Amino acid sequence: MILPIVAYGDPVLRKVGKEIDKDYSELSTLIANMWETMENANGVGLAAPQIGKSIRLFVIDATPFAEDEDLEEGEKEVLKNFRKVFINAKIESEEGDEWAFEEGCLSIPEIREEIWRNDIIHVTYQDENFETHKATFSGLAARVFQHEYDHIEGVLFTDKVSSLKKRLLKKKLENISKGKIGADYRMRYYGAKRR
């Protein structure tokens, strides 16, 4: 089932998600709905807060990035198979040079900004079967993970832009929170007037 994506301005996007266990109600249905919702919106990642659930769960499908001709063969190979469920994820450490990449977010349509992030991350997480994994991601895989991880920490990519950029984006962000934008997927607006 395609769920509405929560728009910027909803307090759920600012909450730190709670850890869940294998007894979480209808988890497999929720994960299936998240995949369907993300794919319908042409996203590469979707975190539970973006569908109104303040829990530590996100899904990533970075396979579309594998088509990028500018990437090295090794990174393309990683991205080709980078379709995963992350539960109770934790970034253990970050390293490498910071690099900029233009990011967007399904909860913040029509805004894209260059965001600086570390190149390499070491993480632990559980998959949909609650098996624990330790992994190291780099490049675009690390970036998409960091973006979605921020969501379960109550952080948005627009928090990482300069104060000047924040001032320039203020009106656009207000319009998003009031539902004065046109996304081509279902959205739920916190500040929009109910009819």
TrEMBL record:
Keywords: Hydrolase, Iron, Metal-binding, Protein biosynthesis. Gene3D superfamilies: Peptide deformylase. It catalyses: N-terminal N-formyl-L-methionyl-[peptide] + H2O = N-terminal L-methionyl-[peptide] + formate. InterPro entries: Peptide_deformylase, Peptide_deformylase_sf. Its EC number is 3.5.1.88. CDD domains: Pep_deformylase. It is an enzyme of class 3 (hydrolase). GO terms for molecular function: metal ion binding; peptide deformylase activity. Fe cation binds at residues 105, 147, 151. It comes from the Bacteria. Its cofactor is Fe(2+). It holds the Pfam family Pep_deformylase. One of its GO terms (biological process) is translation. Binds 1 Fe(2+) ion. The active site is at 148. Removes the formyl group from the N-terminal Met of newly synthesized proteins. Requires at least a dipeptide for an efficient rate of reaction. N-terminal L-methionine is a prerequisite for activity but the enzyme has broad specificity at other positions. NCBIfam families: pept_deformyl (TIGR00079), PRK00150.1-3 (NF001159). Belongs to the polypeptide deformylase family. This is Peptide deformylase. It comes from Wenyingzhuangia fucanilytica.
